[in-house]
Every structure is written in C-alpha cells, then in structure tokens.
Amino acid sequence: MASGERVVLVTGVSRDLGRRSARALAADPSVDRVIGVDVVPPRGDVGDVSFVRADIRNPVIAKVIAKENVDTVVHMSVISTPGSAGGRGTMKELNVIGTMQLLAACQKAPSVQHLVVKSTTTMYGASNRDPAMFTEDMEPRRGARSGYAKDVAEIEGYVRGFARRRPDVRVTTLRCANVIGPHVVSPLTSYFRLPVIPTVLGFDARLQFLHEQDLMDVLIHAVRHDLPGTFNIAGDGILMLSQALRRLKRPSVPMPGLAVGGLGSLLRSARLADFSPEQLSFLTYGRGVDTTRMREQLGFEPAFTTTEAFDDFAVGLTPTGGRVERALTAALDQLPPVPDDAPALHPVGDRRG
Amino acid sequence: MGDAEIIPIGTRGRPGRGQGSGRPSAASRSLAGGTRKTGPAKERPAARPADAEADPSADSPRPQPASTTEPPAAEVREVPAAARRRPPARTEERTPGSGIPARDWLAAFQSASRELFGDQWEPQLARFLAFLRRRVTGDYVVDEYGFDQEITERFFMTALRPIAQKWFRIEVRGIENIPSEGGALVVSNHSGTIPVDGLMTMVTIHDHTGRFLRPLGADLVFKSPVVSTLARKGGTTLACNEDAERLLRGGELVGVWPEGFKGIGKPYAERYKLQRFGRGGFVSAALRTQVPIIPLSVVGAEEIYPLVANLPSLARVLGLPYLPITPLFPWLGPLGMVPLPSKWLLEFGEPIRTDEYDAGAAEDPMLVFNVTDEVRETIQSTLYSLLVQRQSVFR
C-alpha cells in the first residue's frame, strides 16, 4: 500500500450498485479519495465521490489514472444485460473492450498497486453435469459460447494476463453470486418481480444469493485488506427455486423449457424481464459455489444468509398468491397450539422395520 | 333379462334409406319417439317397474316417459302440471353438499380426523397442518446438494417402505458393517433395468441404521425433468469426484453403483455377472478422504424386470442408454411396469479400510485398480454365495 494518501478509482458508477459502492468506499476511513468513472453521470447522490466522465473503452482512462495518482482500481463496470446500453454488441464492447482498455491503462500506471474486479459466479455456467458446489479452482463444465458468461470468462482471462504482466499488483477477483436486495435491478430480480412466475417443468434449481449490502461490504473489505486471489462470494445456504417462489407467495406456472425460452424472448421484447439462454439454464439446473476460501482466506463473513437476503428482497414485493397459506393459518387458529416442532407426524411415518 | 324383448330399432330387414318415399326411416322414427313408439314405451314401466327404477340409463334416450316417472311423489303432489312441463333433471340442484348442514360436515370431519390420527387427533392434526404450512411458505431447509430431509423422511421413505418390506420382502445381512457415524462409501452391484435397487438400498439403510444414504447418480438423471427434482430432493448428487469427496469429507454415507448403465441395462441372461467397474473413481475418492468402502451385494433386483431384448436404435433416437423389452413391457402397457415380486437379499460386507494407505495413494493407478478389483471380487463372490442360499426367485 502506498504510504501517502489512498486513492480509489471505481468504474461503472452510473448504475445503482456501482454508485452506492463508491459512496460506501468514500465513507470508509482507510480511503482518502474516491474517483467514480462512467460514460454517463450517476443518477443519484454520489456523496464524497468525485465523478469523472470518461469512457473506459478509450485511452483517456489512462490519463485519469496517472493524473489522480490512483493506487486501487475497483472494476465494477461489467454489465449482465444490454438493457439501456443498447444491443448485445454494445454490451460486449462495454464489458470486454472496456476491461481491456482499463487493464492496459493500469499496466502503464506505476501508481496502481491493487486491482479489485467484481466478477460473477455466472462464469461457472449451469448444466446437468455440474458438481454440487463449485470451488474457485473448477472450470465450467461447458465453456460459455455466448452472452454474459462468455464476457465474464474473457474478462477473467484478461485479468489473469494482467496479473502475470504486473506481478507487483495485487489482484483480487470476487466472483459474486446473484446479488439481490430491495434496490437491485437485474435479470433475476425482474424475473422474481413478475406477477406470475414461469418455471421450467420438472426442474428445481438450487440458488444462492448475495445481499446488496454484503456486496458493498465485501468490496470495502477487499480494498481495505490487500488479499490477492479469486474468491467465491455468496450468502450461506441454498434456496431451491420452488422454495423461493413459495416464500415470495407468488404463483408459478411450470412449463417446458422451450416454452419458457419463447416466453422469455416475448417478455424481453415487452421489456418486462430478460431471459438469456444462460439465465434459462441457471433457472433449470441452478448453481452452488463453495465459499470456504471467502471465509478462511479473505476473512469475510456475509451478514445475510441466502434465505435472509431473499426475504429482504421479498418484503418489498406484494404477494399475488398465498391463499393456501391463509387457509392453513385460519385452520390452525381453530386448533390447540402445537408445543413445538416435534417430529411426530404421519400416522404411518414412524413405523420402522 | 331372460325374456327376450324386441326393441324396435333399425329397419327390420327392409331397406331403410334411399327408397325414395320421402319418409324418415323406421329406425329414425322409432328413435324420435313418434306416435307408433308411445305404445310399447308406456307399457314398459308397467311391465317391469323394478327394472325401470334400477336401471336409469334405460330411460335416458326417451325423455318424455322418464319425466312422468322420475320426479319424487312430494313434488308431483304440489305442482303436478309444472313438474310435467319442466325438463327432467336440473343439474344445479345436484351440487354436492348443498343440503347437508354445517354441523354434519363438522361431525364427519371430526370422526374422519379421529379415524386418521387416533384419539389425540387435535394436536396431531395441528402438527400436520403446521407442517403443511411450513412447506407451503417455503420455511424449510435443504442442504447444499438440494437434499430435503423432511420430504425424504416423510414421503419418499414412507412410500418406498411397503414396497421394500411387503413386495420384495428384503432380508438384510451384515448391517452392523455400516458405521453409525462418519463418512463411508457403500459400493453395490447394479441391476434391474430401472434403478429400483438404489431406492431400496436407501430405504433399507435408513430403516436399519437411521442414516441417509446419499446416492451418486449419472448425469442423465439430472438431465431428465421430474426425475432430477426428485433425485436432488432425495439426496442424490452427480457422480463426479468433486461431489463424492465433498460428501465423504462431510461425514456422509455415500452410495455408488460403479457398473452404471452397463449394470442395470444388461440382458437377463447375464444376471449376477458383474460388469466392468468404470475407472475406479470411487476408490480414489475413498482413498483421498480415507473412508472405509463397504461392499454391498444385492440379490433379487435382477429378476424384477427381466430384460430380454433391447432396442438400441430407438434408444439412441430418444437419447437413452438402452430401451428395455421385458416379458411384460411394453406389451401390458403401464401394467408391465409393475416389478415382479422377487425375494431380495442384501448383504453388506466387511468394510475395506483405506486409511492405512499413505496420502499419495490415490495418485497410484496400480493401487487404485487393485482396490477396485478387491471390491469387485468381494461383491461377486458374495453374490454367488447368496444365490446358493436363496431358495427360489420368488420365495
């Protein structure tokens, strides 16, 4: 760490998570100055963050880094959906070319000592041949051919190349599970915000979530403690998709995988939700990542478990179902209270041969 | 009906249509219930009143005579003229339960609950409803492999137990070889066209030791809809080294069927001949995690669906490893999927220790092959001795 003042450059601050992370970093006492960079100005309040309007896709970014004497670069400008940016071509350019330019600029800047990249567990893919829990050393079973997952795989490749060329820079790659929370707008949260949720018939995906607050905390944690390496970041525990929908109290419609894909493209054109092929395979097979390294090497403990993070997201949504639950509650009110969850139940279940 | 009665349907031998007379045929006239028909139709209820009441379908084609006989006497007495004019049956009157008072419903419900849950029905029912509510609100825990212990214990095991005990009459030997805690790898032969033996092993081990067997399944299991959901809920995970080692390190009892599809899809003529044991990945997983290997020999599963032929080309089209033809399937349709009630014997062998080998043992292919062969030989010889002891296939 530089002995002088600590200057952090955050990319992708125009989006909500980037902006709030930058603000949280600026509020951290170990950081002296935070510079936010993006193509468009952030919508909300950036607090102490000084915003620089620059495109990471062109070499101007190198001048910013050199001029401001940046020592830590937090790269958050990896977008998962074209959304407002335009088409898939723009998205790929933003993700891949942007990262290349940023890393090229970092390589030229002697002041840069630490690079934090917010990656995603999407790079592991989702298929029926996946192990239950991915560790950081595992490769995806099927290499991503298109979309976000391929972008992320390429970005991580460039980051590894950068780490080889600048061995003095400590590179921290955080592979975050799906970020969820009341303010998060992502393909997955817009999926859960649908009033009636289509699911893939006969499959039940295993899901892991990371609360938005935990994402900011882990970024600050990574900036504060210089711990190089690649880490999976996710809340504890697993939530099945069916279980998540029950907790949301929203009705679901199981339909064959192909039909869900067709409906997805329909919803995409209506701008209601975005089903990319990798999103569909994620909702079919699910994914789990092992977070032992996060706990033991990074020393980070998420405040929210997967279930708590999801519940925090679900609180903000109005339930569109839940009739069965109300009927059961009404029936239970008529009966004497159960002492506890004693495992006596089924009249035939306790018999053992 | 002993006495033959001629029902006037048809043309009675004469050509009924296309004769140019312009009149409807005799058949259609008799069905339409014209003037000629009323005579015999009115006679019928009088001739055999018991038949007419017992067999309501006899009246249905002729609505007019039915309307005179069907309404109960009370209604006829009140407004006989209106009753004759209105249609014979009004479906809206037939909604079930409209005439049953709420008190009767409650009494019936209480007696049903008492029947189902015994004298302590109120707390039992409350507990059951609380369980239902917990499921409906998603307030339960699954482990990282998607294993849902509650559902497995309460539904899967409950459903499979009668099959294991009553249908296959499973006899267990050497159950003491399964450690009461800590990781262990159960290695079994595989047979029976459909992996019923895996399910039966799961329920047997759970009933005798209280432990859950965590089976390792092929990737086809996780590709098929419904099956993949049930398999994950029941504790199955993908047969790969990462998952096997993770489960064993976590102190779970893991079940593996190294013959795979070669084992369950082998023809009936080759029954009880062990197939090749794959690449021995299960042995290296056990060596790395230093857990004992427990050989399990299952006798009886070969006979549940005797596979007499296979349709490889159709199976390839459907993406299946094989498509079985058994003496009953597909000839009897769904009935052909009922397994034959063979008598099963399960023998757990002496645990084969792997903690005596040093750390790098899993990287020594020769050692891995030797241990694999040892396990295979043990299972094969136990199979032969069990077959000698077995009285017959079904007893």
In short:
The complex is a heterodimer of chains A (353) and B (395). Chain A has 12 helices and 13 strands.
List keywords for this structure.
heterodimer, A: 353 residues, alpha/beta, seven-stranded parallel sheet, two-stranded parallel sheet, 13 strands, globular, disordered C terminus, B: 395 residues, Glycerol-3-phosphate (1)-acyltransferase, seven-stranded mixed sheet, two-stranded antiparallel sheet, 9% strand, extended
Could you characterize what this model shows?
The complex is a heterodimer of chains A (353) and B (395). Chain A has 353 residues and is an alpha/beta fold. Chain A is 39% helix and 16% strand. In chain A, the strands form 4 sheets. In chain A, strands 3-2-1-4-5-6-11 form a 7-stranded parallel sheet, with helices on both faces. Chain A has a two-stranded parallel ribbon with strand order 7-10. In chain A, strands 8-13 form a two-stranded parallel ribbon. The longest helix of chain A is centred in the first third of the chain and has 21 residues, at 88-108. The termini of chain A are far apart. Mean pLDDT of chain A is 87; it is low at 342-353. Chain B is an alpha/beta fold and 395 residues long. In chain B, 45% of the residues lie in helices and 9% in strands. Chain B contains 17 helices and 9 strands. Chain B has helices at 26-32, 35-47, 49-54, 63-69, 73-78, 80-85, 102-117, 121-136, 149-167, 196-209, 219-223, 227-233, 241-249, 261-264, 281-289, 312-318, 365-389, and strands at 171-173, 184-188, 213-217, 237-238, 253-256, 293-299, 309-310, 324-325, 345-348. Mean pLDDT of chain B is 82; it is low at 36-77. At the A-B interface, strand 12, helix 7 and helix 12 of A face helix 8, helix 9, helix 11, helix 12 and strand 4 of B.
